[in-house]
Prior knowledge:
Blueprint: H1 8-39, E1 46-47, E2 54-61, H2 68-77, E3 83-86, H3 88-93, H4 95-103, E4 107-110, H5 123-141, E5 147-148, H6 157-165, E6 169-170, E7 175-176, H7 185-193, E8 201-205, H8 211-224, E9 228-229, H9 232-235, E10 241-243, E11 248-251
Amino acid sequence: MKIWVLNKKTCALAIICFVLGIALLAMGRNASVAVSGKQKDLPIYCVDKGDEKIMSISFDAAWGNEDTEELIKILGQYNVKATFFVVGDWVDKYPESVKALSDAGHEIMNHSNTHPHMPELSEDKMKEQINECNNKIEAITGVRPILFRAPYGDYNNAVVKTVRDCGCYCIQWSIDSLDWKDLSPDEIYERVMKKVAPGGIALFHNAAKNTPAALPKILEKLKADGYEIVPISQLIYADNYEIDLTGKQILKNEN
């Protein structure tokens, strides 16, 4: 049986090996995070704005149209310009509402042509969904959309890449009102306000039961707290950016 005698030299060697082992383990973990980050292609959930109180409000329009005029009126009262993601089929049914939203200064962006689950489609079919909806919106507003939000918030790497290949930014959200679940106005207000942060993107829906009742209180609170509300195209960075593992768009350091 061998007995190891620890002297200063062997102790020092053991400490060095231990420290190197910890360092190599940490490097391995960081490398695995970096690899996973590269593998996952994310849409923009929010934008890094530091402490600047600026955010965006968005509406998805896929089904009904009963409250569009009321939403335009409410947003106008608070001098807020929002982003409306519309489905091509909705544009076909309500072209006058698309024009009214555009004329009121809101931006009209792409929510697919028929509201499918995009990850289930081939690349060609995804491009068809994006381009057909873009064509319909451009024909009415004169402006070709540069933003796309996947129906159901359903995306994968192929969806995000295809959206980018079509010349658009893929947009998600960081504040979910869940207004489509017919929450009460107070519940919608609480859900939204507890998630508000600089660079945030709030999600509402056109034709949601209680959104018109909740919206004024939300806008009043945001204004009172010093927030500037801008369309998403004015919130995001157009280039020289990266998206971190949480979906936050970050401006790259040019130095």
